[in-house]
Amino acid sequence: MDSIAPYLGTLVVAVPALLVLVVGAASLFGRPLPERKLTRCIQFAIVTGLLAALVMLALMLITGTRHVPIELGDWVSIPHYHFHIKFIFDRLSVPFVILTFLLCGTVGAFAANYMHREPGFTRFHISYAIFVLGMVTTSLAGTIETLFAGWEFVGLSSALLVAFFHERPAPVRNGLRVWAVYRVSDAALLLAAVVMHHLRGHGDFDQLLGNASWPEGVSHIESGATFVVGALLLLAAAGKSALVPFSSWLPRAMEGPTPSSAIFYGALSVHLGAFLLLRFSPLLDASPALRVAVIVIGLITAVFAAITARVQSDIKSALSYASLTQVGLIVMEIGLGLRYLALIHILGHGCVRTLQFLRAPALLQDYRTLENAIGKKLPSRSAGVREWAYRFALERGYLDILLDEYIARPVIWFFKKSDDLERRYVAWLRGSVAATTDKRDDASLED
Amino acid sequence: MTSSSAETLSPSEFERLRQIIIKAADLLPSQGPITAYVFDNTLRALEDLPFHEALKRGGPLFGCEPYLSLARFQQEYERGRITDADLEAVVKEDLGENAQQNILGLCTRSELWLAMLKFPLRAASAAELRWFIAESDALKKFLPNAAPSLREAPLDRTRRWILQDVLPHWSETKSRDGRPPAPSRFSLFDDVFNGFDVGQIERWPDHVWTEFCLQTLWRVSHQIASTVPLAPVVGPPRRPRDILLELTNEDSDVLVSSVLVRLCAAFTDQGLAEWVLPHREEGLFAAFIKIYGLSGGPPAEWLRGLDKELDRIAEQRLGPLDSILESLQLLGVTEDDWTDFISTTLLALRGWAGLLWQNEVRSDRVPIPVPAGTLIEFMAVRLILDRFALESIARRHGVAKEIWQHGARPQVKPNHTEDRIEARTFLLFQVSQFMGWYPSVLFGLSAAQTSDLVRELETFSELERRRLFQIAFERNYRQRALNAFSVQTRQQAKRVEDVQFQAVFCIDAREESFRRHLEETNPRVETFAAPGFYCVPIYYRGVEDAHFSTLCPIVVRPQHWIIEEPLYSMTQVEGRRAATRKALGTAQHQVHVGSRSILKGALLSASIGVFASVPLVARVLFPRLTARIRRKAESLVKPLPVTRLRLERLDEKPSQTDSGFGFSLPEMINFGERVLRDIGLTQGFAPIVMFFGHGSACQNNPHKSAYDCGACTGMAGSPNARALAAMLNDPRVREALATRNIIIPATTYFLGGLHNTGDDTTTFYDLDLLPRAHRPMFEAAKDTLDQACERNAHERCRRFYSAPLNLTQSDALLHVEDRTEDLAQVRPEFGNSTNALCFVGRRSRVRGLFMDRRCFMHSYDPTTDDAEATILARILGPVVFVCAGINLQYMFSYIDSPGWGSGTKLPHNITSLLGVMDGAASDLRTGLPWQGVEIHEPVRLLFVIESTPEILEKIMNRNPVVGRLIRNEWVQLAILNPESNEILHYKNGKYEPYHPDVVDLPAVAKSSDWYHGCREHLGFATIRSS
């Protein structure tokens, strides 16, 4: 076990990294791989990764090991302080990584046909490869900085895929919005990492959360700081999983080609926030306030999404709010300490939703088949909903507008004002003579 | 927002407004529910205009490209799809007597036009142009495409001109030391001289002279370009939104759509969302007022005050038209601008507006239609939102009312003089190189001459050049097609002797290859073609169907209801199966709905969720195998294979009740007679006569019905074929037909079937009734058909890039089956994508002609028709309309896929169970998706009809639709003389004899010898074996 595990573990991570390198380098040097070869590469990478992960799981089950760390060295190491590249195979990460390979593999096979002859075929698959790498890195991360790296890969590739059809304005607009929310969430995660490093000098999970393997860890962070770190992580999770109040990006992410909407938002990356909370679940034990916050956000999200889902009259929005309902519940389960349930829930939900998203274009035929079987128009439409409730749901809880009006607008106002002040200050420093030349600088700045 | 009343307006003005909106609705896409796809001319509203004029109008009106781009046409020219001969013929014809007109002694007009077509003229935005001039070697080397002979002469002439005429002047000006030179008429070139080492001028090598020559040419061109005044450019009418967008870079349509799209989707929803829009039954306007009139609405800045405004509208009891009038006044739209303003505003969200309108006027096509007047209500809602959005943007950016409230005047574009002069210079600069015009020649032109020259170049605008290319593109194919017809039709028109079986297929272009392969496989097969609903328009409900479907072209409303039912003795068994199906269906539906709710969803995904990975992986990775297993499993609960159509009616009148289903005997007789007469099968019946409907199986495809039978409103036409066969087998029908001179021998048996154009399989109905004696014949026929299926699949595979070219025939069949079962397949087939021709005449005249699946066909025997051409007239009515609709929809969806079509289908999202959007909120996308038209060639359909000009004129006069389409040249027409093989081409209202320029066609033994190894469109050939 000990002799083979490190190789297997490294293989699981190395394969997607290699895929990104090969696919990316080929395009970088102006010789993008032809469709067939590209598809082969992806198949090979995914199957190898999946097999390695499965063997790892088998080994762990046979030997009863519950915690296999893989050390790949340091980013930075100075006394009392280091950034560590480390991966952990445990009961949380292994199922998650297997799910990732399974769903990404299936969707990859799907996309190979679906994207055939599309001018952005290579571009799509590069984003896809980065996404897989991000997912695998995040799931297996053993330190918060490694996790952050994966988290960023996922965010970058997702935003690029939302804006995949960049010749139309709407996808670009929506991609940018997804990106903006992701940045907030990334910033929170980064801050959490900084705080952890500040407190302990490193971001290694096994030292922060105890040596016991997941989910039995115990928080080793000072209780005061626990809430701060936890709140930051919750913010990060909320952005990535589209929890209230960030929910409105989820339907907007449906601009990309069907396969990317399916895996990325429907099935995998929308669970990433929940995964983060699971990873840090020992913190929840240490801070009841945090626990309550998680439960409340989860519950609100679930109820909000369930109501909103009822009025969506297009299939992809309906499915994305349906996804969100379950993600809200999963977050709530995590808050309640039902960690295994949450994990199983994620796995099951990921599979169901991927299938539904991939079959979304078949909705018309499916409805017809169902109606034929039942012999009449499909039932269960409820009229007589109150107008305000309907409007609330139709407008998706006004969350989009609230973020715009109460977050984005003040922030932009603040920075504009600051910018103004700075300019005036600079102008004052230079004296009035220089004011004319300054005008030109202004113009170029605004460009 | 101030309130203003519309009381001053008289009822007639209301009526006028209503009429304007309804008239504008004609412009909207005519696509109804996507589940019953109807092919229609995308520019139906402009059909009253000649084709090219309609495009000229339609392009800017809809904001779409009217033709392929010049670059695309240039490519086609380079690869030989458009030849020099085509261009020359087209230019000659278009210019008529003006062709030889001399232009300033430089060339004839036709020479100029030809050069401007043949040589790629670059046109670019001002910035791109400046970059091009500064950074590329445009001023250093002659354009690469200019012929070498055109380079040497100007170089030589320029050299002499410079040395003899220009240089002396320049030296003079230089010699006056220090003082500014007196302006000479050559001072234009001072800068050019300054850039060169003039001292060495006599030793300049060629490349320096080239550079010098080009720079002088540029100078001269620029001078000419700037001296001729620019004509003002008038753009299409602009809405206030356009003005504000230009000024502030904020698009009010984005704001408005964010509310309106959801509202329209909720309003038209056929059952996707669980909650129904409150007050839906009261109409869009009332629902909007009641829902958004409540306080505490969306807190968006631009919507502030909407609740109060809606309250006011409710209080003052303003109707939709009142509200529109009020909004028009508030937006400063004067009555003169109403028409333009309303049509451009409606077109801003044309997909949804069109769907609302379709649901309003064809309420029979959707289960939950919208009330009458919805489009007007939509307009009212839209304008209220427009007001809020526009005012908010104007307020925030401090744009004064007077600036943006402009109604919808045509926009007089700012001249951007400098940019336009640059563009003009560049045009002249390039043309001069292609034409071999020297700087000296241009320099010597008088002011009047230069202005003539510039006008000459600018009249032959980009749009005009594209128009001519389009005509040349069509001419090329037409010549080849008419050549092929004139050669092939030399063969004698005769029926097949000793015929084994006869097969009738749909008029569809896809069946061209199937007919051909069938005849190739067995020369003793005779085929016919008729519209796929076989002139039996019905509402049909199959054994396992919940609803009736409409099986006939969209313009016909059926009078009869036909159902399929289990055999009487099997009623109980079928009842049990139906109950099982119902239970399974209900459970499946529960899962489907439950997965989207909180608790059921949680239970489901947390318990059995992971097992969803099994069908997920299986269906994606092993589509064919999974489909076979699924079908096996389904066969346990599917209806029994033996069923009957209920054909004969008990009641006097047809109705949608149990005793009202079916036809009366006289109706059956008439239906039977109609098709046989139309296709000219009134004698010489084979022992087995088959009628095939066609449909297409495929997965995960919202546009599936666009692959089904166009003559059956996007459904499979097999029930019609089956009904027809059953009627013709009825002894009473035969008896009656015998009295009408159609004697069907007792040994003849009719069969109805289905050709699946997706996986190339055939299915038959009511085989259990086949007489025992016919079984061996049927089995032999089935063998032939199976072989034809294989060959057909093989021919289709050549067009699929994911199918290797060396596929064997049996592998080809597996490949097409794979395509139909694959969830990820966005091109299960190409439908009628390749259509370009339509032949109406006897099959025997074109039998054995390889037409590359590009030809619609309707069998018609002119020798059996009367002097009034009754049969041809009733054939052409629907055929011209339907085929032109199909052809033009493919054409426009191809020419500008995101504009006229629905763009790539990859981000499509089914909405309201009626259509697709791009992503989560966009306009409804109408037209065909790119993946469905990818291999199309945009040419107008060429009809070849076996008849005479006199008859055609009569028909065109009698049938205004046919007349309009042909006379306005939305389709091309050629007439094939029924006796000789003389062909007349219809052009500008005249029939001109066509003189073929070939005497022979390539001949091959079988189709595969001809298409083998080719992916692209193929020419015509004669297949010897049929």
Contiguous uncertain segments of 5+ residues of chain B: 1-7
Number of helices of chain B: 38
Biggest beta sheet attributes of chain A: 2 strands, antiparallel
Question: Which protein chains are joined by the largest interface, and how many residues does each one contribute?
Answer: A-B, 103 and 95 residues
Helix content of chain B: 40-55%
Instruction: Walk across the major sheet of chain B and give the strand order.
Output: 16-14-20-21-22-23
Assembly type of the shown chains? heterodimer
Give the strand order, joined by hyphens, for the main sheet of chain A.
1-2
Shape of chain A: globular
Instruction: Please describe the biggest sheet of chain B, giving its number of strands, its sense, and whether it closes into a barrel.
Output: 6 strands, mixed
User: How many distinct helices of chain A?
Assistant: 19
Poorly predicted segments of chain A? 435-447
How much helix is in the residues of chain A?
A: over 70%
**In percent, how much strand structure appears in the residues of chain B?**
5-15%
First-to-last CA distance of chain B: 77 Å
The dominant shape of chain B is globular
* Order of H and E elements of chain A: HHEEHHHHHHHHHHHHHHHHH
The average pLDDT score of chain A comes to: 88
Q: Structural class of the helix and strand makeup of chain B?
A: alpha/beta
How many individual domains of chain A?
2
Rg estimate of chain A, integer Å? 24 Å
